């Protein structure tokens, strides 16, 4: 598991006015909570966080928040953005404990789709029904992403949640809720299927009208 360290500072003054001044000064107000410890108000450098949040790992990895050398392992739980400016308004981090399982959403990486029979066929559409999945595991086992090899995907194939190859120590809580929760992750089907299904209905319209004329 890769290490991602982010330097933070303690935030001495809280409130809307103080947060507004922080943002004006290029800082982001944030809070760290959980782990049986009182919440701590912190601030981060906006430019560095803006660059970090463009990476996938920022949302799905354990982050090391360093406060003057005191490092706490956390997960990003919420990010608030300005509605139209390139500005992060606030961040929420949750502490994680090494011996306690956590839940987090992990992105899915689809590999070799263009090399698969379905990917090579001109009339086949490959649908990614999910782009991420919630997993449960210890912090040390949390993957940054889960790979799905589509090299053998053929038309008509459906890959379900239960078919994902998970790293050791990682499970999908959704699958414990019943078979109906074993949803499709990838579907390969003919792109003309919807059109073909709708065609008979369209053909029925003129026939019905013709029948009415005959009745008259």
How much of the sequence lies in strands comes to: 35-45%
The Cα radius of gyration reads 25 Å
Helix and strand composition category: alpha+beta
Number of helices: 5
**Approximate shape:** elongated
State the separation between the terminal residues, measured CA to CA: 78 Å
**What's the count of strands?**
13
Major sheet: order of its strands?
Answer: 1-5-6-7-3-4-2
Largest sheet: 7 strands, mixed
Mean pLDDT: 88
Percentage of residues assigned to helices: 10-25%
Task: Write a structural description.
- The chain is of the alpha+beta class and 216 residues long.
- The chain contains five helices and 13 strands.
- The protein has helices spanning 16-24, 46-52, 57-60, 117-120, 193-215; strands at 4-7, 9-10, 27-34, 37-45, 63-67, 70-81, 88-95, 102-111, 124-128, 132-137, 146-149, 158-160, 184-190.
- It has a seven-stranded mixed beta sheet. Strands 10-8-11 form a three-stranded mixed beta sheet, with no helix packed on it.
- β3 (27-34) and β4 (37-45) form a beta hairpin.
- Mean pLDDT is 88; it is low at 195-199 and 205-216.
């Amino acid at each position: 598991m890769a290490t991602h360290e982010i330097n933070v500072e303690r935030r001495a003054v809280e409130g809307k006015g103080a947060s507004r001044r922080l943002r004006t000064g290029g800082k982001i107000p944030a809070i760290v909570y959980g782990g049986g410890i009182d919440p701590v108000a912190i601030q981060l450098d906006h430019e560095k966080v803006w660059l970090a949040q463009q990476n996938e790992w920022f949302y799905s990895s354990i982050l090391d928040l360093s406060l003057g050398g005191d490092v706490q392992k956390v997960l990003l739980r919420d990010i608030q953005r300005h509605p139209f400016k390139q500005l992060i308004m606030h961040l929420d981090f949750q502490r994680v404990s090494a011996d306690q399982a956590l839940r987090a959403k992990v992105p899915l990486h689809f590999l070799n789709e263009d090399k698969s029979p379905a990917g090579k066929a001109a009339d086949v559409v490959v649908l990614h029904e999910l782009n991420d999945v919630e997993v449960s595991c210890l912090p040390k086992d949390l993957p940054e992403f889960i790979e799905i090899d589509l090299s053998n995907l053929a038309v008509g194939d459906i890959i379900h949640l239960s078919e994902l190859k998970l790293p050791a120590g990682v499970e999908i809580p959704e699958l414990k809720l019943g078979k109906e929760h074993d949803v499709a992750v990838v579907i390969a089907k003919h792109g003309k299927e919807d059109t073909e299904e709708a065609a008979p209905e369209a053909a029925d319209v003129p026939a019905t009208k013709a029948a009415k004329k005959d009745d008259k």
